[in-house]
Design goal:
Largest sheet of chain B: 5 strands, mixed
Number of strands of chain B: 7
Largest sheet of chain A: 5 strands, parallel
Structural class of chain B: alpha+beta
Strand content of chain B: 15-25%
Largest interface: A-B, 27 and 31 residues
Number of strands of chain A: 5
Shape of chain B: globular
Strand content of chain A: 15-25%
Order of helices and strands of chain A: EHEHEHEHEH
Oligomer: heterodimer
Number of helices of chain B: 7
Radius of gyration of chain B: 18 Å
Strand order of the largest sheet of chain B: 2-4-5-7-6
Number of helices of chain A: 5
Chain lengths: 130, 234
């Protein structure tokens, strides 16, 4: 079973997202902030993909992405950003997103769940566990 | 309402966006046929809670601006009864976030006030904490100060600082991006509205920071008779 990490502070959103992902065969674990996310990744080497909000308590999502890129083990880990911010609201060049490991950026109100599932399936299966 | 007009749309928009995003996602899940029966029921219940909470927020906005004729008539109200009723109404929401409430009841004289506004204030205060669970229950106590009565809500999970609280009371609060550090997507608007509603009742909602968490205090004038209440309106 492919393991995903959902980094989402909002209880209702995280619960729905994880229920949806579990229902199509993904295993999920949840972190509510950047520190918890790093702890999960440390403990669970089988995580194949991270889905993260950018607005997180204390350290924001960009700080998390930077942190992941500073470790060789996690540099190949694909990240899907699922955020309440539009991409244009984040002052980051396209190349920076790629450097941060972000393979997909989705603005929450525009989320199409069935499309997300297809994208995640493709990405996760193409990524070995770290 | 004293928020600057230019900020109002931004604040309300941000506050409504969060539950709407969750409702949209849950609706997409419910349309599909992958969920098993238990998960489907849980998500349906979540959808119902989110829509109710969102409607309550919108309603409380109307209450802030409503004229006296649009508000319920003041009536003899027992504060501890309002707290108990509010806790029962909020039970599904609090249970889903593993946040029990412990109410330390004590006998109080009924005061002459608007029960629905108190209910709305308590809802905002009792759900103000972030979605990060705490093993400590929220504790509610009552005090009778003679001229006033108060409800004290001790929340060990609240992350609101005194500075954040003061900003929530100012007209420019919307420019303060994250008044609730552990709940970054919230503008704190619901608490701002709760403060306005407390003012409408002639009372006050205050925050007393503690080493762990906070204590909110809703203090209301103890007006025991309708005639005194009417006189105070002048």
């Amino acid at each position: 079973m492919v393991e995903l990490l959902v980094v989402e502070p909002d209880e209702a959103y995280a619960s729905a997202l994880m229920a949806g992902l579990n229902s199509v065969g993904f295993a999920t674990s949840r972190a509510t902030d950047a520190q918890e996310a790093v702890d999960h990744l440390d403990r669970q080497a089988e995580i194949r993909l991270v889905i993260t909000e950018l607005q997180l308590p204390r350290h924001n999502g960009l700080a998390l992405l930077q942190h992941l890129q500073s470790y060789a083990d996690w540099q190949q880990l694909p990240v899907v950003v699922l955020s309440q911010f539009k991409k244009v609201q984040i002052e980051l060049a396209p190349t920076d997103w790629r450097q941060y490991g972000v393979v997909e950026y989705i603005y929450k109100p525009k989320l199409e769940f069935t499309r997300l599932i297809r994208q995640i399936a493709e990405l996760a299966h193409a990524t070995p566990a770290h | 309402m004293s928020i600057e007009d230019s900020q109002l749309a931004d604040v309300v928009g941000r506050e409504l966006m969060r539950p709407l995003q969750s409702m949209q996602l849950i609706s997409q899940l419910l349309v599909g046929d992958n969920l098993d029966d238990d998960v489907r029921s849980q998500q349906q219940a979540q959808l119902l809670q989110l829509s109710q909470r969102t409607l309550e927020l919108v309603e409380s906005l109307f209450l802030v601006e409503a004229g006296p004729s649009q508000l319920e008539r003041p009536a003899a109200t027992n504060l501890s009864q309002v707290v108990s009723d509010t806790a029962v109404q909020l039970q599904p929401w609090l249970l889903s976030r593993q946040r029990p409430i412990r109410i330390y009841n004590r006998p109080l004289h009924p005061v002459y006030t608007r029960r629905r506004l108190i209910n709305q204030i308590l809802r905002s205060v009792l759900t103000a904490s972030p979605d990060i669970t705490s093993s400590q229950p929220v504790e509610v106590r009552f005090r009778d100060h003679g001229q006033t009565q108060s409800v004290r809500v001790r929340d060990y999970n609240s992350d609101l600082t005194l500075d954040g609280w003061q900003r929530l009371g100012s007209a420019q609060f919307a420019s303060h991006v994250q008044p609730l550090p552990d709940n970054p997507s919230s503008s704190g608007f619901e608490l701002y509205v709760a403060r306005q509603l407390a003012d409408r009742l002639g009372g006050q909602l205050t925050l007393e920071p503690k080493q762990t968490g906070n204590c909110f205090e809703l203090r209301l004038p103890a007006l025991y008779q309708p005639r005194i209440w009417q006189a105070k309106q002048w």
